[in-house]
Fold this sequence. Notes:
The protein is α/β, with parallel strands linked by helices. Helix content is 39%, strand content 24%.
Amino acid sequence: VLPADVPDAYVVHQGEVASRQAFKLANDLRGNGLRVVLHCGGGSFKSQFKKADASGARFAVVIGEEEAAGGKAAVKRLNGEGAGEQTVLPVAEVVQYLRG
C-alpha cells in the first residue's frame, strides 16, 4: 500500500507554451480530485523523469512543444502493471484516463 501523499501524477513539461498548458492541466487534475505534482525549475526531460520516478507517482504526464501545439499530452505509466507504456491523448481526456 502506497502512502497517502504519493501523487497520482507528476507533470513534466518543456517550453514556454507547454509550461502554461502544464500549469492549467495540473490545476484541472487537482480540481478533479487527483494528487498532482507539477515540475518547477526547468531541466531536461531526463532529469524531470528521474524526479517523477522518485516521487512514487503512478503516471507522468508529459507536455512538450509538440504535444502543446496539438492540444495533447502523453501519459506514461511509471510503476505497476504496464510500466513504461505511453499513450498520447487530448488534454481533455487526461482526467478520465488517469482515473481509469
